[in-house]
């Protein structure tokens, strides 16, 4: 696949619109093309930031006073009220819109904090884990075996719990990588499905769950108590939501 072709299908891949064969071809191209990989990451970062951004900002008092000071005196109406010309109303509205847009774009870099969730990366990590001998580094249904295994391998302690009584038996854990940083991957079963729950520390505040799908895989992401979690599986979205609720209790 040429870079020109890759750029043409990038947005289709980002939106999950490619079939499995074309998506796989595009992913193979990414492995050897840092430029296309960088373009994809930039698009994913921008989309994530726009989803989180609240593109609204109140104009500072000083700016509002400056705008009012530059407005010409309006003619008095019959009953002594000042009438603001329509052209100045339009100008004020345009100024307010530009201020809001500027504040929104100014906030975008701050929303791209270290550990920012990227759905594509987590789905890729899930797919890699399904290859032979890649699923677990420590295989156990005992949380008291899995949790200590991470000691000394990570600079944080991931919360490890077994939910076998709720239909999500713990199967083990492993180390994974997100943007060059080692993170924890907890492996659960759900009927005949595998669920990967990726865990890493974050300085961001707790956040309500966000979910979606990519390449036929469901994901749900949330933050709680200084940790960010992302669960990925080909099971139903309802199953992942149930596991998210269990882990958040």
Helix content: 40-55%
* Name of the CATH first level of the largest domain: Alpha Beta
The low-confidence parts are 77-81, 100-117
Q: What name is given to the CATH topology of the largest domain?
A: Phosphorylase Kinase, domain 1
Quick one: biggest sheet? 7 strands, antiparallel
CATH superfamily name of the largest domain? MucB/RseB, C-terminal domain
In percent, how much strand structure appears in the residues? 15-25%
Compute the average pLDDT.
79
Give, in spatial order, the strands making up the sheet with the most strands: 1-2-3-4-7-6-5
| Gyration radius over CA | 25 Å
Structural class: alpha+beta
**C-alpha termini separation:** 47 Å
Order of helices and strands: HHHHHHEHEEEEEEH
CATH architecture of the largest domain: 2-Layer Sandwich
Number of strands: 7
Which word captures the global form? globular
How many alpha or pi helices?
Answer: 8
- How many structural domains can be distinguished in the coordinates? 3
Description:
The structure is a single chain. The protein has 249 residues and is α+β, with helices and mostly antiparallel strands. It folds into 3 domains: 3-52, no CATH class; 61-111; 119-248, MucB/RseB, C-terminal domain (Phosphorylase Kinase, domain 1). It is 44% helix and 21% strand. The radius of gyration is 25 Å and the shape is globular. The two termini are 47 Å apart. The longest helix is centred in the middle third of the chain and has 26 residues, at 86-111. It has helices at residues 3-14, 20-32, 34-52, 61-70, 86-111, 119-129, 143-149, 237-248, and strands spanning 138-139, 170-178, 181-190, 193-201, 207-214, 217-224, 227-233. It has a 7-stranded antiparallel beta sheet with strand order 1-2-3-4-7-6-5, with helices on both faces.
């Amino acid at each position: 696949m040429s870079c020109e072709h890759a750029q043409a299908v990038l947005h289709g891949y980002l939106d999950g619109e490619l079939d499995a064969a074309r998506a796989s071809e595009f992913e193979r191209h990414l492995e050897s093309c840092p430029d296309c990989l960088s373009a994809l990451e930039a698009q994913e970062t921008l989309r994530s930031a726009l989803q989180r951004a609240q593109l609204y900002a109140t104009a500072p008092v000083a700016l509002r006073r400056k705008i009012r000071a530059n407005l010409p005196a309006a003619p008095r109406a019959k009953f002594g009220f000042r009438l603001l010309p329509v052209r100045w109303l339009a100008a004020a509205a345009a100024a307010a819109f530009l201020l809001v847009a500027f504040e929104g774009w100014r906030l975008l870099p701050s929303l791209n904090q270290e550990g920012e969730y990227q759905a594509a990366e987590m789905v890729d990590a899930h797919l890699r884990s399904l290859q032979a001998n890649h699923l677990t580094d420590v295989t156990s249904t005992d949380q008291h075996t899995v949790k200590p295994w991470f000691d000394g391998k990570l600079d944080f302690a991931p919360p490890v719990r077994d939910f076998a009584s709720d239909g999500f038996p713990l199967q083990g854990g492993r180390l994974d990588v997100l943007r060059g940083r080692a993170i924890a991957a907890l492996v659960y079963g759900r009927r005949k499905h595998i669920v990967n729950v990726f865990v890493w520390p974050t300085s961001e505040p707790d956040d309500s769950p966000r979910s979606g799908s990519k390449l036929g895989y469901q994901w749900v992401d949330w933050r709680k108590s200084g940790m960010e979690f992302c669960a990925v599986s080909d099971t139903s979205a309802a199953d992942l939501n149930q596991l998210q609720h269990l882990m958040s209790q």
